[in-house]
Design goal:
Number of strands: 2
Order of helices and strands: HHHHHHHHHHHEEHH
Bound molecules: fe (ii) ion
Largest sheet: 2 strands, antiparallel
Radius of gyration: 21 Å
Strand content: under 5%
Distance between the termini: 49 Å
Structural class: mainly alpha
Helix content: 55-70%
Shape: globular
Length: 399
Amino acid sequence: MNPLKEKGIPIEKQTKSWSEANVTPYNKKEVHPYTRTRVIFMNGIEVEGAIFSHQCARHTDDMELKKMLALTRRIEQQQQKMINWLIPGDEHVLAVTIGYEQVAVDLTAFLARTEPDTYVKAALDFALLEDFDHLYRYANLMNIVMEKEAAEITGQFTEITIGRPTSAEHRYPFDDVRRHYDAQSADFLTKLHVLTIVAAEQQTMNFYMNVGNRPEAMLGRGLYLEIGQVEEQHVTHYESLADPRASWFERLVLHEYNECWLYHSMARQEPDPHIKKIWEEHLEMEIEHLKIACEIMKDKGRKDPEEMLPKQLPDPLIFESNIEYVRDIMAKQTDYNADGTEFLPGEKMSKDSRYREHQEKVNKGGAPSDRVIDEHKKEKGKDYRQELKGPHPIERFRK
Ligand SMILES: [Fe+2]
Ligand SMILES: [Fe+2]
Ligand SMILES: [Fe+2]
Ligand SMILES: [Fe+2]
């Protein structure tokens, strides 16, 4: 489908009453794991939509533009709340956290598998193994604190085991900055992928920033603190891939187009009829946002948005199991590191690199991500894992 050719919902008809917007949350015992990930994911997309619109408004003196941004932004905020409010109050923060890292794993793997640009794909593969490890660390914390298995949340779709060990992920900030694609020549799908993964990682960063102080015990507080800093690295890593020379108008159109693509994608897969209706209705709202953004670009940016947009939405983004893909990348790249903008095997890093200096600083006295595994072993005799397709692909990480 081409969203520009669809009808959509007029902007004046998008505002809901409080009772309409205050949705009934899903049932945590019955929700499909990938429904939970879609909810977490689309909340992140809407948060980025709202924050981007604020940034855009702060960079213009054009009253008419500010008013149009305020108008659509209020709806992005309404959408964000309707989605985030689908998460029930009785779902524990740690359980939601497991959901966040499952999003990171299966979203990143899907994007990497379908990414046309080799450098962007390498960046996705690189961070994939880090979020994969976060899932394992939080799962062990959860089993200690709540006596609950993370696999009850993730289902049989995503493995839970060691990735690139979290304590090895801490790098000097210069080594998080990547080269950017060229907006003139990049594949349109690359632009959507980068925007999408930035929104998801940024939401994870924000989430840990805010809820990381909710655990009572020092171990849990330390783990959120440590992983929260890696999410900061991930946002720096991904945001630097986007071409900073793109105009505000291009970025506005790209944001609204991306929301159309993603709601269309989510609606296609959603088994929960109540939530599917939300995806479908939001798609119709986004069609209108996209048209408004295109008008703004034509009028104020003096550029034809149709020149940059494809004639058809790309194939849908799917939440699905990526076990084989993750295992394959793990077997090849677990010990990879970053030196400036490039990724390279760990043994190629020089002994006196800033990486090592930074490692010594932060890991002095031990890392919570290592301690959580030691604690679990002490209490239960072994670490918590869910390896579904045989022993760990890397020998030294086998039990
Ligand atoms: Fe939106
Ligand atoms: Fe993560
Ligand atoms: Fe991440
Ligand atoms: Fe939108």
